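agent: user wants the structure for Acetyltransferase from Duganella lactea. delegating to structure tool.
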Amino acid sequence: MSNAHTLIIVGASGHALNVHFLAERLDVPIKGFLDDNPETWGNEILGSVVLGSIDSWIEHSECQFIVAVGSPRVRRRIVEQMERLGSPNYATLIDPAAVASGRKVTIGAGSVICAGAMLTTQISLGKHGVINRNATVGHDAQMGDYVTIAPLAAVSGHVTLADLVEVGTGACIRQGVTMAPGSMLGMGGVLTQNTDDNAVMVGNPARLLRHLPSI
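agent: tool returned. relaying tokens verbatim.
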């Protein structure tokens, strides 16, 4: 991301704090936060002010934006909310302590790659993805839009993570496995089989716990 653009972080808790930390590491100017909780408006968080509601992004359209919410489904809902008013300019933030710019690695707009993450080669990540701290992604992995990979997760080679997939902290995915749209692998889970749409998988080896609402 060019330092010529000022960043606004959409969201004001949890993952938004990590994004603020990353932006400071990259020396990206931060204008503030946006959040739909009116109780946060005008508050200062980490030295940056909550400027107003998410819809007020249109008043700051000269800025770049990161939708900094951990949940893939909520992140998509916020992006869709913003895009009903126009076409925001989304930033892409890659921590200098991540390895994510190697040969044939593509990263979609609005994505965040945190410190210690490693993406090796021939990997694609769609828009508004999150690869969190010390997560690893192996060769030939294909990841859709709004994918979230939590800290310390390990995604093997030739894995496919469809849109809105979430991989929990410390979880592992065997080579060649496909996670279908909207599915989730719980913290510490070890996934050795393909999943159904919207399936929540837990345990070692991971088994179906329940299904989330259709996306």
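agent: one observation worth passing along. Residues 7-91 form a domain with the Rossmann fold fold (CATH 3.40.50.20).
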